[in-house]
Design brief:
Blueprint: E1 6-9, E2 17-20, H1 23-42, H2 52-64, E3 70-71, H3 72-79, H4 87-99, E4 104-107, E5 126-129, H5 131-136, E6 144-147, E7 154-158, H6 165-169, E8 171-174, E9 179-182, H7 187-198, E10 214-216, E11 229-232, E12 234-239, E13 242-247, H8 254-266, E14 274-277, E15 285-288, H9 295-305, E16 309-312, E17 317-320, E18 323-326, H10 329-370, H11 383-394, H12 407-414, H13 418-422, H14 426-448, H15 450-465, E19 474-475, H16 483-486, E20 491-496, E21 501-503, E22 510-515, E23 520-525, E24 529-534, E25 539-540, E26 545-551, E27 559-565, E28 572-577, E29 588-589, E30 598-605, E31 609-617, E32 627-631, E33 637-638, E34 645-648, E35 652-663, E36 668-673, E37 678-680, E38 686-691, E39 697-701, E40 705-709, E41 721-726, E42 733-739, E43 744-750, E44 759-760, E45 769-774, E46 780-785, E47 797-800, H17 801-804, E48 807-808, E49 815-816, E50 822-828, E51 885-888
Parallel strand pairs: 10-19, 28-33, 43-48
Antiparallel strand pairs: 1-2, 3-5, 4-5, 6-7, 8-9, 10-11, 11-16, 12-13, 13-15, 14-15, 17-18, 20-21, 20-22, 21-25, 23-24, 23-26, 24-29, 27-28, 27-30, 28-34, 30-51, 31-32, 31-35, 36-37, 36-38, 39-40, 39-41, 40-44, 42-43, 42-45, 43-49, 46-47, 46-50
Length: 889
Amino acid sequence: MSEDNTDIIDNQDEPQESITRVTGMYKDWFLDYASYVILERAVPAIEDGFKPVQRRIMHSMKDLDDGRYNKVANIVGHTMQYHPHGDASIADAMVQIGQKDLLIDTQGNWGNILTGDSAAASRYIEARISKFGLDVVYNPKITQWQASYDGRRKEPINLPVMFPLLLAQGGEGIAVGLSTKILPHNFIELINASVKHLQGKRFTIVPDFPTAGIADVSNYNDGLRGGKVRVRAKISQLDKNTLVITEIPFATNTSSLIDSILKANDKGKIKIKKIEDNTAADVEILVHLPSGISPDKTIDALYAFTNCETSISPLGCVIEDNKPLFIGVSEMLRRSTDNTVQLLKSELEIKLGEFEEQWHFASLERIFIEKRIYRDIEEEETWEGVIQAIDKGLKPHVKHLKRAITVEDITRLTEIRIKRISKFDIDKAQQKIDALEDQIAEVKHHLANLIDYAIAYFQRLKKEYGEGRERKTEIRTFEDVDATKVVIRNTKLYVNRAEGFIGTSLRRDEYVCDCSDIDDIIVFTQDGKMMVTKVGSKTFVGKDIIHVAVFKKKDKRTIYNMIYRDGSKGSTYVKRFAVTSMTRDKEYDLTNGSKSSKLWYFSANPNGEAEVITVHLRQVGSIKKLKWDLDFADVLIKGRASKGNLVTKYAVKKIELKEKGVSTLKPRKIWFDDTVQRLNVDDRGELIGEFRGEDRLLIITQSGNVKTILPELSTHFDDDMIVLEKWVPKKPISVVYYNGEKDMYYVKRFLIENEGREESFISEHPDSQLEIVSTDWKPMAEIEFKKERGKDRKDNEVVNLEEFIAIKGINALGNQLTKEKINQVNLLDPLPYEAPEEKPAEEIEVVSETVEPSDANSVSEAKNEDNPQADNGSEKGGEDDDQGQITLF
């Protein structure tokens, strides 16, 4: 034992011991182990996209391939000759390859990626190489070989895969100190990208998942570390109390998805009645909702609190030259495509050599037989003499050959049978040589135009194998779901105003509202302080609470009206403000900051309401005016830190509410962003209009349904929506539709009488379909007639739909459009019409500056018409429709 690794402890009283320091060995062994796991188990090679076990499985399947199915157990056993890590790991890897439906034709129960069901035992299921696998994975002539682990057989170093297989299948592995996660991509899109790369064009590839779903790849980062892909289930509304999930996120299954929904329901995040899983070949999960629960809000809640939305972090790591390499998917595709070009070149070069060798021997054979050189060997008694005689006989006739004649060539000539010589046909021999010359010329042409040949190769793959491999995952940009807006408020909030406590455990105190455990609570106290804090079981926020509510971030439509006294004997001020942002658990002073300040009046107004109050002064000295009214509509909305406007410098006796107010905010402008299929108030997409409290949206679908809804920002829209606009109740809807039962085209005009109810305005016959729909006051349509046999085509006809039929009920059949055969109906520009204008409500804008009044007993009436702060309100509805909370002192 070396002195470096051993210490001898010599002690007279103790037996002699030796201590071995394993630091060096541990370091070396661990590094060897980590390297082995990275290179031989977990990470795929960039050359062919296979991990070692996958490569050995495919090689074994080729060994056993006879066109028929083999038992997987038999393939696994055969693979163990090359892969020394047990049958379980081989069988699992083979099932994963088979489930990707690309390289292996499967037979039997191979599991279900949708439900998570596992495959049957390997002795019950069968497999064979797919036609695509045989086409792109194997070519022994250009494969490099190495000895297997026991030296008894040869296995491929890399298979000559001529396709970006790694990107098509995806790959995932965890090694020692290293991992990889390459997402699957679309078969057709990969081929198109390879062609673009060969053409010198730019390309972009994004994931496509076998479970379909909807993906946001805006932060994909080309599959490199730091990127992220958000994937959502496809959820639609079956009816007002039922949602249906038809596609699920990648890396989940229906079982785990349902479990996450049930857990969210148990925690009170969402509220569902029951779940049905009808998944078979396709996903179908029915989520039944209790009555009174919003389907749109529940869809967002499913995305926020369950596995209906998942986030996947890609990590592009591959093995190149026995080293880990971190590269993006675009570079992977370039390298794979370039590798395919080189493999095609090697394949052509080998083929060219074979054809030239065939041509060489066919030419020699023809000369040997046609010139009767075989007779020259009749007198020779030795083998050397035979060789020399044939060589001498060939020399006058071989000047056109491309290489010199070898002994091996002459030996092959001597092996020609007499029967073949006797039946030799000179014309057929020449035809064979001509055909070989054509093949040689074709191969040389391909080599000279290698890029064009590679492009044609990829296009052939797409044509032969691309059918049925269209994109499954829909690419869309997601809006973030605000969890506080969609969570079910499953607990109750209480307040002890005098002692200053709020919480969910104060059941003996005053009930405030329903809330959730992720909500923030805003609190105002009588001394003019404000605080926002998290919901808790019992939290002290300050004594003499005057207002408590669930806080909504960035809420610019909730306006607080306040009158306070500055200090113990100071002047009285009025202010209006919104609270859009804050620091949690920080106390804010809403007064001027003087000691002993107090509130005279406070109200919280969800839609900017401005009430009228009466101010009463104390009889002190010679004050003449002891009572007057103050309208909050005359007070500008400012920041919460503003001092406010002077009401009076005299002592206030009391303040009374005289009249409840109406909203002083502008109608809310709403846009529709077609990219994310959502409404918004942030100037994204197309402006729909300005909406007041009771204004509604009109929605018409291609399937012939119409409804009106309140413009809630959480609303989900169907894919077949064709009309989305602000609803004008008195404006008729004009429709031309084909009635399948009558086999005729009809025209109808109607008004919507049932707000909020979805109704069908065409017949329920399966052949009935909507042709055109218009919400113009005076719509015009053009009829194109079919050409009947033996007759001239009838000229197009223009129809004024307003004059064609009067307004009737939505269920009316309508009037027949024409008796002639119609080719199609086109909507034209409408006739001019001036719609009646609606009178706008009085409006007041939000400003940030403090405007001091010139008169001590008056309130500033200054207004800022250009400040848009009041326009960008938060979503209205639910509790926001109630009148604000008012507190008098």
